[in-house]
Write a sequence for this structure.
């Protein structure tokens, strides 16, 4: 079999990323149907189950979700009586999100997410391969202008492809649509 040229390699990488995205979406859709939750809501319940009560800010950082999105997620989970907000002892300014008894019961039976499968599979790989994958993923995220915390880059600049990136232009374009 002849080696793939660069263009074919790029198409394979992009195709693999699309397949991965589809698998993640399908996994979330299955969960949503089975438990009446979105994958984001399931992630909130799992995180609170494994980590314990967290502030909305800490929870959003843990899940790579913006604080404003986290507020909506928590509001919907609160309406389902799966979480509640309580004031932190010793600092009344901080509200902690905690699992209710129903939320705890549900969090205990949620199926292992795709993330668990990845962690397990990566754990069986040689360290140098895991390091290479990590570096490749970081590079892909930089190519699409994503910072380490999962947010889009907010400063204009040039990405590693040499393309000019200006988040202000994106806003202007979306405002004009």
């Amino acid at each position: 079999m002849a080696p793939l040229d660069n263009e074919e390699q790029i198409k394979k990488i992009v195709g693999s990323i699309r397949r991965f995205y589809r698998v993640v979406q399908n996994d979330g859709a299955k969960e949503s149907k089975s438990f009446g939750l979105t994958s984001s809501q399931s992630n909130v319940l799992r995180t609170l189950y494994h980590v314990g009560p967290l502030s909305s800010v800490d929870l959003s950082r843990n899940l790579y979700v913006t604080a404003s999105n986290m507020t909506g997620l928590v509001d919907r989970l609160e309406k389902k009586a799966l979480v509640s907000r309580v004031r932190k002892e010793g600092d009344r300014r901080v509200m902690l999100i905690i699992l209710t008894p129903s939320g705890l019961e549900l969090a205990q039976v949620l199926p292992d997410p795709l993330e668990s499968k990845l962690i397990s599979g990566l754990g069986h790989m040689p360290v140098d391969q895991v390091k290479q994958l990590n570096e490749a993923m970081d590079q892909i995220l930089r190519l699409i202008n994503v910072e380490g915390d999962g947010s889009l880059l907010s400063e204009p600049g040039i990405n590693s492809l040499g393309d000019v990136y200006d988040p202000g232009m994106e806003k202007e374009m979306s405002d004009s649509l």
Summary: The first strand starts at residue 54 and ends at 55. Residues 6-35 form the longest helix (30 residues). Residues 146 and 152 are 4 Å apart (CA to CA).
